[in-house]
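Quick illustration, no need to memorize.
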Amino acid sequence: MEIFREDARPTITVNAHGKIGNVAIPLAARFLWQGAPMTMETLFAAVAVEAFPGAVEWYARLFGRAADVVVADNEVMWRVADTAWLYVIEDAGRAGRSLVTISVSDLDQAVAELDARGIRSGDIETVGDAGRKATVTDPEGNAIALIQIAAT
């Protein structure tokens, strides 16, 4: 199954001024969707929770600010990069099963900031030659991994 158009294969380049950590991914990358080109523009990643008010408070500490958008009484969103959003939604049936990874430019600093906000991460681990990561877990068991991609 062909995933990428041969003439528009996305590339990853290190960008000192990158919007998503230190990695810039061309938005013009064209993927094939059922055989036709489709431009991907924005990512919305969901974290399902059961205890919504407590989760909103925890994620506000994670991001260091209140939600950027209140969608409804049971859904809020944080903008984590120019074209990437994380939303927290009350959904008891899916609660505690989410896994989200966010790239940061300085993992040690990010872990220290979270620690100062009362959010403890697991140990920082090396992931092959790709970089390093640390994972935090919200009170419902959803995992948020922070990664620092190795410079190439």
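The domain at 43-149 is CATH 3.10.180.10 (2,3-Dihydroxybiphenyl 1,2-Dioxygenase; domain 1).
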